[in-house]
Amino acid sequence: MKNQITMKNKKASIKVTIKNKKNKQSPQPTEEKKQKPKVAIISLTSCEGCQFALLDLGEKFLNFAEKIDMVDFRLIEDEEDTGEKLDLVFVEGNPVTKANFKTLEDARKRSKLLVALGNCAAMGGIPEIKNYQEGSNTIKHVYKYIKGVNNPEIREIDNFVKVDFTFPGCPINAEEFLLYIPELLKGKIPAIVDQPVCVECRKKGNKCLLLEGIPCFGPMILGGCDAVCPTARMSCQGCRGLRPKGNVKAMQTALKKMMTDEEFENMTEIYGLRDDIEEKIKNS
Ligand code: SF4
Ligand code: SF4
Ligand code: SF4
Predict the structure, then answer these.
(1) What ranges do the domains of the chain cover?
(2) Span from the CA of 197 to the centroid of ligand 2 (angstroms)
(3) Is 2-185 CATH 3.40.50.700?
(4) What is the DSSP string of 51-117?
(5) pLDDT tens, 130-166?
(6) Which atom, in ligand 3's list, is nearest to the CA of 218?
């Protein structure tokens, strides 16, 4: 017995065949399918980079796919989503169009657990930059002569639906996805350890950028990305979001000795951190 998954995107069409070992002995494929958790991975308005991070797992992703009943995942789908009830839904991107809002509401109604997939869904992400610039006027620079384009203020999905768990990052760390997925498939909510990017950075033996006077958000940002940016001598710009227990006020004071207020604001806007920082400082 073979299961076939067709992976499609605009540029490529790949067919992958998975041998289902269990089915060799069991003549009851429909019963087995019923027992598997029903999962959907949906995207709103996004670059789909977080979904591609999952596909980049290759065989590990196929092993995960064998353990679930994938109801919807447009990068590999070969069937229409039937709208059935779900155990787990992953949501990538921002709700921008009317169709996005409906998809998001439907996802919440259909699923026991709803998980934000990546920085855009969780924090507004790169698209949120426009909120801080010219807001709705920004679209005039992009679509000068086109009318009728949906252009609401960018707001992360937890403004509209309850979010049970978040995979942070831009894009997500796919290995972290594999780490927490077993708990989620059991209907449990995992806890991400509250440690800064600095922990992984120092473990790698990196020379701290801050000590060289280069701004880096690492101490106030949730680790788990293997400190990829500082390892490449680039500042952490906070795509994984603020740590629950990070001292944001102290960090802001330290950073503002290395950069102007405008530079600090610009850096916090890249991944939708600015509103989170303002709120945290207001409540501290
Ligand atoms: S979080 Fe980053 S990779 Fe994921 S959808 Fe948004 S922009 Fe793309
Ligand atoms: S370079 Fe950044 S992430 Fe690394 S230890 Fe220094 S502040 Fe922390
Ligand atoms: S180092 Fe910072 S910006 Fe880079 S991936 Fe990690 S959290 Fe994101």
Answers:
(1) 2-185, 197-283
(2) 7
(3) yes
(4) HHHHHTTTHHHHHHHHTSEEEEETTT--S------EEEEEEESB--SHHHHHHHHHHHHHEEEEEEE
(5) 898 887 778 778 788 877 888 889 999 999 999 999 9
(6) 2
